Amino acid sequence: MLTLRRFLATLGPGTVWLTLFLVLPLLIVFVYSLLTRTDVGQVGLPFTLENWQRVFGYDALFEEFVPDNLQVLWRSVWVAGLATGLCVLLGYPLAFYIAAQSERRRRLLLLLLIIPFWTNFLIRIYAWIIILRPFGLFPSTLAVLLGMTYAYLPFFVLPVYASVEKVDWRLVEAAEDLGATPARAFWAAVVPQTLPGLVAGVILTFVPALGTFVVSDILGGAKTALVGNLVQNQFGQSGDWAYGSALSFLLLAVVLIGLWLYARAAGQRGLEDLA
Length: 275
Hints:
Blueprint: H1 2-33, E1 36-39, E2 42-44, H2 50-55, E3 58-59, E4 64-65, H3 68-99, H4 103-114, H5 121-132, H6 140-164, H7 170-177, H8 182-211, H9 214-219, H10 227-235, H11 241-274
Antiparallel strand pairs: 1-2, 3-4
Helix pairs in contact: 1-11, 3-6, 3-8, 6-8, 7-8, 8-11, 10-11
């Protein structure tokens, strides 16, 4: 009885919250993906797997596979991965640079990093159209990649910076005393200490980049369709909520598989940080 009371007092509120606002909505979306479209924005019986067949490219009318959705999904993973890679290349050294500054300058740099969040996201993305316009016909995919990197770079830098602040630099001195080069000492003594922030930063960057549709709509000019655009169109213009729900679950599955693979690649420590 005492154990039950402790559970209700500690994990109980969190469990109820996750059940009501995470598990239950996901179950509703999954049920929608199995229903039949009856009208614009309406679904009903009977249950069917047609929506899932369409997700994986099977055209029931012509009884053939048209892998358009899978191509869009692959493009989305590719662009999100590139944006995440750019955030790593730019954000990792930036986090070290900020941490190496004086207290006053460090606060200023962090403020400058956070200031964009004070402006509406749409306004910031539209501003990039004005910035890129003088360069003429800017490739749509490159513009989308640039917009994603700009939008999600702070999400990568902040958790990495939090890890860099806790780095024990005495381990670097010990590695150099044992004959390691500066690069080897950094890789062996510093990178493992920043791995928690690196894992968190990659996740916070890749997941929203994979599902975004605003950046590709505005900067891509509807020429670079990503999976987020497909989902948004089903719940908006097309009004096919059943098919949109199936696409949403496909996107969720890809994200979960990607996180699992990244955790495995990062090793046991990365898995613990992810949990």
